User: Which sequence fits this backbone?
């Protein structure tokens, strides 16, 4: 196995639009990157844009680069009550035949990871940030996607940076939030880290 490559939903249009989000995911997943490199494995992150494009890129890589561990990471869009593959089949009628450990979800959206660390979000937005507007729950995966977006928008609307904007703000926020805290509040995030660390550590 030559390395690991992740195909992630997200990123805007244009040549450099996805760079901030790619940098943010790179920082958030740094523990996995360092573990892979310690074993001489290549580590790559690709922002595919829309959710369906991430699936296409992932499946293409599985066909053309079978010597890599190819990993899909997309929003679940709703609460997850089944395995990730079955959830994608039921919700989007996607056919996903790759091993279960290669298919991962941000439940119910990437913004759940962000609101899991309200202190870091507040530090990013600064003065006039209204932390009380953020939806809170011990398990952030129970928060519906629309409440995540509305809460972030309301909490940040009076700040100098302005209301939450996925393209402009999500990447820098991912750089700041604490992965350990997110993993403690989002079991599918914990699954991503634990599964990939297990794959990496199994390599000679």
Assistant:
């Amino acid at each position: 196995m030559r390395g690991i490559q992740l195909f992630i939903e997200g990123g805007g249009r244009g040549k450099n639009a996805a760079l901030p989000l790619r940098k943010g995911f790179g920082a958030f997943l740094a523990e996995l990157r360092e573990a892979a490199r310690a074993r001489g494995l290549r580590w790559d992150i690709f922002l595919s844009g829309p959710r369906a494009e991430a699936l296409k890129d992932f499946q293409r890589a599985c066909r053309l680069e079978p010597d890599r561990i190819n990993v899909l990471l997309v929003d679940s869009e709703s609460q997850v009550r089944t395995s990730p593959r079955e959830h994608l089949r039921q919700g989007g009628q996607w056919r996903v035949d790759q091993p279960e450990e290669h298919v991962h979800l941000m439940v119910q959206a990437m913004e759940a990871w962000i609101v899991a660390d309200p202190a870091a979000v507040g530090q990013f937005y600064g003065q006039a940030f209204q932390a009380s507007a953020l939806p809170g729950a011990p398990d952030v995966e129970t928060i519906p996607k629309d409440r995540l977006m509305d809460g972030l928008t309301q909490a940040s609307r009076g700040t100098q940076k302005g209301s939450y904007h996925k393209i402009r703000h999500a990447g820098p926020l991912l750089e700041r939030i604490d992965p350990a805290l997110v993993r403690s509040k989002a079991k599918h995030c914990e699954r991503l880290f634990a599964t990939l660390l297990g794959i990496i550590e199994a390599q000679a």
Notes: The two ends are 10 Å apart (CA to CA). The chain has a mean pLDDT of 94. The longest helix spans residues 187-201. Residues 119 and 131 are 8 Å apart (CA to CA).
